[in-house]
What does this fold into?
Amino acid sequence: MHIVDGALSNPVVIGGVVAAAGGIAMGLRSLDIERIPTAGVLSASFFVASLIHVPIGPSSVHLILNGLAGLLLGWAAFPALFVGLLLQAVFFGFGGLTVLGVNTLNIALPAVLGWLLFGRFIGRGSPVAGAIWGGIGGAFAIAGTTALVAFCLALSGDEFLPAAKLVFVAHIPVMAIEALLTGFAVLLARRVKPDLFEGRVVA
Amino acid sequence: MKSLLLSLALMVAPLPALAHKVIAGVFPAGTSIEGELGFSNGDMAAHTEVVVSGPDGAELGRIVTDADGFFTFVPVEPVAHTFYADLGAGHVAEVTMSAADVAAILGVVEREAAAPTATEGEPQPAAVTVAALTDVERQVIAEAVRDEIRPLRREIAAYKEHNNLQTILGGIGYIIGLFGLGCYLAARRKLAL
It folds into this structure.
């Protein structure tokens, strides 16, 4: 899911940096002191999740967990995921420093979109209904990320449809796993700490 | 459900490991440059086109990797060679061999061209030791050594990609520190109000 240095053309990289900076600014403004610990925990889980490889056939994919971060943090997912991505680039060599902006945008924007679309349903109704919406949000964030990755590659010269198909198909299993994980995380949070989702509709 | 899962698995199976880092390396190998291309999980990039270009960006040639992700390129000019490969889906590999290394390879070529006349010219009895090796023998030995070293090289490349617990804990430490700092700043702002 991480685009590496040198794969994208310069305008795409610069555009990504500008858009990601905007998102991070939005996120920092909405990040009040009560939510900083949540953001830290989700940033850390995103950082580690990429090391959990799920073997599928001869290949393997890794978890991303951006949907969960988006649903819990809203715009604050931008700074949280940015920190995770920065450390992944520095420590593990995933992605790269020049494409950090694009990667942040690709991963955090669908997370925020998922929150805008499905976030309001999660705190409502029974915990199980909330968990189902959480699962949908989790899968949606991955699907959105694959679409954005393919779009970035298309802007840099790759054919859009084959690239999109390749990335999307490879991540179908991730979507399923993340939907399950996000759903159960929401279920647990609704049962244990219901106030995590309250008062979150306006940011 | 089972058949759906199976068909999903089959759809995914032939794809390259998208979640992995690309590993690319080039090494001098006798009169040519040998390189390998693959992913950090051990999958090699088979039948991938590699574009070779000079320092000014001019294309020097194209090569296709074999089934094991290996390729060889015979340099002609003593300039820096850049090897670029697009493995698809945002995975690109770029490695450069410096002009000095390429010149050394070309130097080998020149030395070998000059060698036969030199050995014929001076049939020294002292040449019973290492110098007694003919160029063919020397090449065979070099080849054998390369074959022996290859798995080691691969292992070192894989080892470099290995993330140990310290790295992971270090990263988490950074995250805690950063968000702790954020908490501190936010708390100060709150107190100032």
Observations:
- Chain B is about 45% helix and 25% strand.
- The interface with chain A takes residues 8-13, 15-19, 21-22, 41, 43, 86, 88-92, 94, 161, 163, 167-168, 170-172, 174-176, 178-180, 182-183, 186-187, 190 of chain B (CB under 8 Å).
- The first strand of chain B starts at residue 22 and ends at 29.
